[in-house]
Amino acid sequence: MFRGSMVALVTPMLEDESVDFDALEKLVEFHIASETDAIVAMGTTGESATLDFDEHCSVVRFVVEKVNGRIPVIAGTGANSTSEAILLTKCAKDAGADACLLVTPYYNKPTQEGLYLHYKKIAETVDIPQILYNVPGRTAVDLLPETVIRLASIKNIIGIKEATGDISRVSQIKSNVSTDFDLYTGDDESAVDFILAGGHGGISVTANVVPKQLHDVYAAALAGDEAKARELDAPLKSIHRDIFVESNPIPVKWAVAQMGLMGEALRLPLTPLSESCQPVVRKALLEAGVALK
C-alpha cells in the first residue's frame, strides 16, 4: 500500500517541552520538498511515550492538515494497553490519517497469543489500515513471524515494520502471506538488504536528516538496482550507525536542530545529546553532505 522512504518524524518542542507547531509545519514542508514518500507522525521517534492523549492527537491532526493529501500520513497509535491503542487509533482515523502504525505492547511482555489478540481486537474495532511494528530492542517482546502470518489474514492489517535487522524474516513472512501484505524495515543500517530481499520500503530515523538521499536509495533498491542503491547508501552509513549513539531520538533531534529546522528540546526523561557524542554525530552529518547552520 505504501512504498519507499517513510520518515519516523521527530516532534519539535519548545524549551517548556510543549510541541513547537511552527517547527513541525516547517518539517512537513521540508519532507514533502525532499520527496519523502510518507510521514509517520507520533511514532516512537516522535516521543509518543511522553505525550499525553490530547497532545498525541493534536500532532496527528496537525500533520494531516498541513500535508493536505500530498503524501500519505501514517499515525503511530501503539500502546501497552489495548484499550488505549484503540482510542489512539480511533483518533487517528477521525483526523484523516491514511494508516496507523502500532508498536508491540511494551514492558508487560505479552505472549504470542496475547499479541495476536491485541492486534486482532484493534483491527476489528477500528476500520483503518494498520501496520504492525516489531522492535524488541525497545519493547522487550518479539512479534514472531508465525504470529505475523496469523495477523496478516485480518483484512485491515496491511503490513509490518520489522526492526530486528533480521533479513531472514522477509522471506519467512513473505512466503506465507498474500502479495498485498507489505514489509517495511525499521533498521536503517540493513535497509538496502531488506528491500532487495523483497521488502517494500522503510520507516526511517535517518530520513529525518537526509530525506532526499534516502528516497533515492530506496527507489534504487525497489527497482532492483543493487549497485546504485549501495553506491547511494555508502555516504549514509555513518549516519545510520551514529544517529543511535545515544537513545533515539536524542541524537536525531540534535542533528535536525543543527540543520536549523527546529530547536534541541526533548521531553524528560530524555536529555540533550551529551557533549562527547556531538562531534560523532556532526562528523556523520558532514560526511553525508548535510548542510549545518
From TrEMBL:
Subunit description: Homotetramer; dimer of dimers.
Source organism (scientific name): Thiomicrorhabdus lithotrophica
Keyword tRNA processing attached: no
EC numbers, comma separated: 4.3.3.7
Family: Belongs to the DapA family.
Subcellular location per the Swiss-Prot or TrEMBL entry: Cytoplasm
InterPro entries (alphabetical): Aldolase_TIM, DapA, DapA-like, Schiff_base-form_aldolases_AS, Schiff_base-form_aldolases_CS
Residues annotated as binding pyruvate: T45, I203
Signal peptide span: none
Pathway(s) served: Amino-acid biosynthesis; L-lysine biosynthesis via DAP pathway; (S)-tetrahydrodipicolinate from L-aspartate: step 3/4
GO molecular function: 4-hydroxy-tetrahydrodipicolinate synthase activity
Site (Part of a proton relay during catalysis): T44, Y107
Catalytic residues identified in the record: Y133, K161
Chain segments annotated as coiled-coil in the UniProt record: none
Top-level class of the enzyme under EC nomenclature: lyase
Name recorded for this polypeptide: 4-hydroxy-tetrahydrodipicolinate synthase
PANTHER family in UniProt: 4-HYDROXY-2-OXOGLUTARATE ALDOLASE, MITOCHONDRIAL, DIHYDRODIPICOLINATE SYNTHASE
Function: Catalyzes the condensation of (S)-aspartate-beta-semialdehyde [(S)-ASA] and pyruvate to 4-hydroxy-tetrahydrodipicolinate (HTPA).
Swiss-Prot/TrEMBL catalytic activity: L-aspartate 4-semialdehyde + pyruvate = (2S,4S)-4-hydroxy-2,3,4,5-tetrahydrodipicolinate + H2O + H(+)
Annotated keywords: Amino-acid biosynthesis, Cytoplasm, Diaminopimelate biosynthesis, Lyase, Lysine biosynthesis, Schiff base
